[in-house]
Amino acid sequence: MKIIVWGTGQIAGGYLIRRAYHVNDEIIAFTDNNKMLWGQKYENYTILAPDELCDKEFDRLVICTIHYEEIEEQIQRLLDIDQNKVITYFEVEEETKRFLINKYKDSSDSEIQKVVGFYKVNPLNVFGYYEGDNEVTYPVFYESDGMPYIWFENKKMYYPMDYDNFVLIDGRKYVMNVMYEQGEHSPHRYVQSDNFTGENMVIVDAGVCEGNFALRYVEHAKKIYLIESDKDWMEALHRTFKPYVDKVVFCSRFLSGEDSDTTITLDTLISEKIDFLKMDIEGYEREALRGGSRVLSESIANCAICSYHRHGDEAAIRGLLEDYGYHTDVSEGYMFFPFDTELEFRKGVVYGRKES
C-alpha cells in the first residue's frame, strides 16, 4: 500500500521506525497542519499541506497524533478523501496485535500462549506477557553545568545534556523504571539468579546506554569494559564512572567481527580472560561474537546475549556460543520487536555457560 502519514511529531516518528507496522508498504509523504512545515522534509519525505492530499494517489492515511479525533473531523469536513482510507496510529497498532494473536493462536508453546492471552486483554507490549516488577520513579537533578543525573543505588547516573525522554510529573522531571527490563520474569533479563557472583569479576558490558547494568556491580568488579558507540551516552558514562576510572575501560567504537577505523573486535580489545559478557548491541551480536573467538574460548564466562533484534538470532547466537564450548539456554517468555520487518515472537536473551 501507498501510505501518507498525518503528523510530524513523536508518534509519527514512532510509526516510521516501527517497520513492522508498515511491512511491504511504501510511505510516500507526510502532512501536517503547521503551515511552516509545508514543503519541508521529514526524514527525507516531503511534508504536504492537507489540501494537497486530494491530488495524491494513496491507499492509506495514517493519523499519527493524540489529537486524532480532531483530525478525523477535519478530514470529514474539509477534504474529499475516502474515509475507508483513514486510520489512526493506534488502530494500526491494534491491527498488528491482532495479526500476532492470530498467527500464534494454535501454538503448543505454553509461554507463547501466555503472550497471546496477555495481548487479548492488554495493549501491545514489547515484553509479551511480562507486566514488570521493578516500577520505581527516579527524580532528575542537574549539575552546575546542566548535565542531568539521577541517584541510582546510591550512585549518580548521568544522562546526555540534550536527553528528552524524561517524564514530567507535576512540573518535575523523572526517569521511570530504570530496572523494568531486568525483573525476575522479564524476557530481557541479563542476570539469572545463579549466573553472576559480582565479586572480583572482569565484566564486559557491550551496549551500555545509561550504564545501569555495569553501575550495579562496579564496586565489586575487578575490571569493567564499557563499550558504547553513541557519543552522547559515552560523555555521560565518563561522568558516571569517574569515581571508578581506575577499573573501567571505555570503548566508543562499534563492536564487530573485524577491526577498522570505527569498529573493534572483542579479541583486539580484551587480552585477559573474562567472567561475564553482557551484549545488547541492536542486532550486531552475531558479528561481535565472531570477533571474540579467542576471548570466549579461553574464558570460563557467563554470557547474556540479546537475541530479539533480528530474525534467526537465537539459533545463530546459540550456535556460536556452543562452538566456543558453552552450554546455552534462553530467557523466560517472548518479545516482539516492532523495529524489524518480521512480525514474530522472539526469545529476548541467550545465556551461555561453561563448566570450569
Shape: globular
Biggest pleated-sheet summary: 7 strands, mixed
User: What is the class of the largest domain in the CATH system?
Assistant: Alpha Beta
How is the quaternary structure best described?
A: single chain
Task: Please name the CATH architecture of the largest domain.
Answer: 3-Layer(aba) Sandwich
CATH superfamily of the largest domain: Vaccinia Virus protein VP39
* Unreliable residue runs: none
Q: Strands across the major sheet, in which order? A: 15-14-13-18-19-23-20
Roughly what fraction of the amino acids lie in strands?
15-25%
Mean pLDDT, as a whole number? 94
Q: What's the number of extended β-strand segments?
A: 23
Q: Give the number of domains.
A: 2
Compute the separation of the termini in Å. 55 Å
Could you describe the 3D structure shown?
By secondary structure, this protein is α/β, with parallel strands linked by helices. The chain has two domains: 2-93, NAD(P)-binding Rossmann-like Domain (Rossmann fold, 3-Layer(aba) Sandwich); 189-353, 3-Layer(aba) Sandwich (Rossmann fold). The protein is 25% helix and 24% strand. It contains ten helices and 23 strands. It has helices at residues 10-17, 68-78, 89-104, 110-121, 212-217, 231-240, 266-269, 285-290, 293-298, 313-323, and strands at 2-6, 26-31, 41-42, 45-48, 60-63, 86-88, 137-139, 141-142, 148-152, 155-158, 167-169, 172-176, 202-206, 223-227, 248-251, 254-255, 263-264, 276-279, 302-306, 327-330, 335-336, 345-346, 349-353. The strands form six sheets. A seven-stranded mixed β-sheet has the order 15-14-13-18-19-23-20, with helices on one face. A six-stranded mixed β-sheet has the order 3-4-2-1-5-6. Strand 5 (60-63), helix 2 and strand 6 (86-88) form a beta-alpha-beta unit. Helix 3 (89-104) runs antiparallel to helix 4 (110-121). The N and C termini lie far apart (55 Å). The model has no long low-confidence stretch (mean pLDDT 94).
